[in-house]
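User: Fold this; C-alpha coordinates only.

Assistant: Input:
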Amino acid sequence: MPPDHAPSAPDSPNSPTVYGSSGASAGSGNDAIDPLDGRLIRLLAEEPRIGVLECSRRLQVARGTVQARLDRLQAKGVIGGFGPEVDPAALGYPVTAFATLEISQGQGQDVRAHLAAVPEVLELHTITGRGDMMVRIVARSNADLQRVIDRVVGFDGIVRSSTAIALENPVPYRILPLVDQAAAE
Protein backbone atom coordinates (compact mmCIF):
# COMPACT_ATOMS: atom_id res chain seq x y z
CA MET A 1 0.00 0.00 0.00
CA PRO A 2 1.41 3.43 -0.83
CA PRO A 3 2.47 5.32 2.30
CA ASP A 4 0.26 8.32 1.57
CA HIS A 5 -3.05 6.48 1.84
CA ALA A 6 -4.28 5.24 5.20
CA PRO A 7 -6.51 2.21 5.13
CA SER A 8 -9.79 2.41 6.86
CA ALA A 9 -9.26 -1.05 8.23
CA PRO A 10 -6.64 -2.44 10.63
CA ASP A 11 -3.03 -3.37 10.14
CA SER A 12 -3.28 -6.21 7.61
CA PRO A 13 -5.78 -7.64 5.14
CA ASN A 14 -8.64 -9.61 6.67
CA SER A 15 -7.39 -8.78 10.16
CA PRO A 16 -9.95 -8.11 12.85
CA THR A 17 -11.30 -4.60 13.02
CA VAL A 18 -10.32 -3.55 16.52
CA TYR A 19 -12.23 -0.57 17.80
CA GLY A 20 -10.95 2.12 20.14
CA SER A 21 -12.86 4.08 22.73
CA SER A 22 -15.73 4.84 20.36
CA GLY A 23 -16.41 1.17 19.68
CA ALA A 24 -15.40 -0.64 22.84
CA SER A 25 -17.53 -0.78 25.94
CA ALA A 26 -14.57 -0.54 28.30
CA GLY A 27 -14.93 1.53 31.44
CA SER A 28 -12.40 3.85 33.03
CA GLY A 29 -9.91 1.06 33.74
CA ASN A 30 -8.72 -1.55 31.33
CA ASP A 31 -11.46 -4.13 31.48
CA ALA A 32 -11.49 -4.58 27.70
CA ILE A 33 -8.59 -6.98 27.16
CA ASP A 34 -5.91 -8.91 29.00
CA PRO A 35 -2.50 -10.20 27.76
CA LEU A 36 -4.00 -13.36 26.19
CA ASP A 37 -6.59 -11.27 24.34
CA GLY A 38 -3.78 -9.02 23.14
CA ARG A 39 -1.77 -11.99 21.86
CA LEU A 40 -4.88 -13.37 20.13
CA ILE A 41 -5.65 -10.05 18.41
CA ARG A 42 -2.02 -9.67 17.31
CA LEU A 43 -1.98 -13.22 15.91
CA LEU A 44 -5.18 -12.60 13.96
CA ALA A 45 -3.86 -9.28 12.64
CA GLU A 46 -0.56 -10.84 11.54
CA GLU A 47 -2.18 -13.96 10.06
CA PRO A 48 -5.79 -13.09 9.28
CA ARG A 49 -6.66 -16.41 7.64
CA ILE A 50 -5.60 -18.50 10.60
CA GLY A 51 -8.28 -20.71 12.11
CA VAL A 52 -9.37 -21.04 15.71
CA LEU A 53 -7.65 -24.42 16.09
CA GLU A 54 -4.32 -23.08 14.83
CA CYS A 55 -4.70 -20.05 17.11
CA SER A 56 -5.13 -22.37 20.06
CA ARG A 57 -1.98 -24.29 19.09
CA ARG A 58 0.11 -21.15 18.67
CA LEU A 59 -1.16 -19.55 21.87
CA GLN A 60 -0.95 -22.88 23.74
CA VAL A 61 -4.49 -22.68 25.08
CA ALA A 62 -7.58 -24.79 24.49
CA ARG A 63 -9.60 -24.30 21.31
CA GLY A 64 -12.66 -23.51 23.43
CA THR A 65 -10.68 -20.78 25.21
CA VAL A 66 -9.81 -19.12 21.89
CA GLN A 67 -13.40 -19.35 20.67
CA ALA A 68 -14.76 -17.98 23.94
CA ARG A 69 -12.27 -15.11 23.84
CA LEU A 70 -13.21 -14.25 20.26
CA ASP A 71 -16.91 -14.37 21.08
CA ARG A 72 -16.39 -12.14 24.13
CA LEU A 73 -14.22 -9.65 22.22
CA GLN A 74 -16.85 -9.42 19.49
CA ALA A 75 -19.72 -9.10 21.98
CA LYS A 76 -17.89 -6.29 23.83
CA GLY A 77 -17.25 -4.47 20.57
CA VAL A 78 -13.46 -4.75 20.78
CA ILE A 79 -13.37 -6.72 17.51
CA GLY A 80 -15.87 -5.51 14.95
CA GLY A 81 -15.19 -7.74 11.98
CA PHE A 82 -12.75 -9.70 9.86
CA GLY A 83 -13.21 -8.07 6.46
CA PRO A 84 -10.54 -7.39 3.87
CA GLU A 85 -8.51 -4.20 3.90
CA VAL A 86 -9.17 -2.31 0.67
CA ASP A 87 -6.80 0.35 -0.65
CA PRO A 88 -8.68 3.25 -2.28
CA ALA A 89 -5.62 4.07 -4.43
CA ALA A 90 -5.65 0.55 -5.88
CA LEU A 91 -9.33 1.10 -6.76
CA GLY A 92 -8.37 4.22 -8.71
CA TYR A 93 -8.80 6.84 -5.97
CA PRO A 94 -5.22 7.94 -5.13
CA VAL A 95 -6.12 11.41 -3.77
CA THR A 96 -7.07 11.61 -0.09
CA ALA A 97 -8.39 14.79 1.52
CA PHE A 98 -9.95 15.86 4.79
CA ALA A 99 -12.82 18.34 4.82
CA THR A 100 -14.01 20.21 7.89
CA LEU A 101 -17.66 21.10 7.59
CA GLU A 102 -19.75 23.66 9.41
CA ILE A 103 -23.43 22.78 9.38
CA SER A 104 -26.68 24.59 10.07
CA GLN A 105 -28.09 24.01 13.53
CA GLY A 106 -30.58 21.17 13.61
CA GLN A 107 -29.39 19.73 10.29
CA GLY A 108 -27.05 17.06 11.68
CA GLN A 109 -29.13 14.00 10.79
CA ASP A 110 -29.87 15.25 7.27
CA VAL A 111 -26.20 16.11 6.64
CA ARG A 112 -25.16 12.67 7.91
CA ALA A 113 -27.60 10.99 5.53
CA HIS A 114 -26.37 13.15 2.64
CA LEU A 115 -22.71 12.33 3.35
CA ALA A 116 -23.45 8.62 3.76
CA ALA A 117 -24.80 8.65 0.20
CA VAL A 118 -21.50 9.92 -1.26
CA PRO A 119 -19.31 6.88 -2.07
CA GLU A 120 -16.09 8.91 -1.89
CA VAL A 121 -16.77 9.78 1.77
CA LEU A 122 -14.82 7.12 3.65
CA GLU A 123 -15.33 8.41 7.19
CA LEU A 124 -17.38 10.99 9.01
CA HIS A 125 -16.60 12.27 12.48
CA THR A 126 -18.41 14.89 14.52
CA ILE A 127 -15.79 17.16 16.07
CA THR A 128 -15.17 20.03 18.44
CA GLY A 129 -13.46 23.23 17.40
CA ARG A 130 -14.07 25.44 14.39
CA GLY A 131 -16.12 22.91 12.47
CA ASP A 132 -18.90 20.48 13.27
CA MET A 133 -17.88 17.48 11.16
CA MET A 134 -14.76 16.13 9.54
CA VAL A 135 -14.86 13.79 6.57
CA ARG A 136 -12.13 11.78 4.91
CA ILE A 137 -12.74 11.74 1.19
CA VAL A 138 -10.99 10.22 -1.81
CA ALA A 139 -10.90 11.16 -5.48
CA ARG A 140 -9.46 9.94 -8.76
CA SER A 141 -7.37 13.10 -9.25
CA ASN A 142 -7.09 16.67 -7.99
CA ALA A 143 -9.58 17.72 -10.67
CA ASP A 144 -11.94 14.95 -9.57
CA LEU A 145 -11.53 16.14 -5.98
CA GLN A 146 -13.35 19.33 -6.97
CA ARG A 147 -16.29 17.23 -8.19
CA VAL A 148 -16.33 15.28 -4.91
CA ILE A 149 -16.13 18.45 -2.80
CA ASP A 150 -18.94 20.02 -4.83
CA ARG A 151 -21.07 16.96 -4.16
CA VAL A 152 -20.22 16.95 -0.46
CA VAL A 153 -20.98 20.64 0.08
CA GLY A 154 -23.89 20.76 -2.36
CA PHE A 155 -26.38 20.38 0.45
CA ASP A 156 -28.35 23.17 2.14
CA GLY A 157 -27.39 21.98 5.63
CA ILE A 158 -23.67 22.57 5.01
CA VAL A 159 -22.77 26.21 5.56
CA ARG A 160 -18.99 26.23 5.04
CA SER A 161 -16.14 23.84 4.36
CA SER A 162 -12.38 23.78 4.47
CA THR A 163 -10.43 21.04 2.70
CA ALA A 164 -6.85 19.83 3.12
CA ILE A 165 -5.25 17.37 0.70
CA ALA A 166 -3.15 14.63 2.29
CA LEU A 167 0.38 14.62 0.84
CA GLU A 168 1.89 11.72 2.76
CA ASN A 169 0.87 9.29 5.47
CA PRO A 170 4.05 8.46 7.44
CA VAL A 171 2.07 6.68 10.19
CA PRO A 172 -0.77 4.81 8.46
CA TYR A 173 -3.77 3.67 10.45
CA ARG A 174 -2.60 1.17 13.02
CA ILE A 175 -4.04 -0.42 16.11
CA LEU A 176 -1.59 -3.07 17.30
CA PRO A 177 0.58 -0.73 19.42
CA LEU A 178 -2.59 0.32 21.25
CA VAL A 179 -3.66 -3.32 21.64
CA ASP A 180 -0.23 -4.13 23.13
CA GLN A 181 -0.50 -1.23 25.57
CA ALA A 182 -4.04 -2.10 26.62
CA ALA A 183 -3.13 -5.76 27.13
CA ALA A 184 -0.19 -4.78 29.35
CA GLU A 185 -2.22 -2.52 31.65
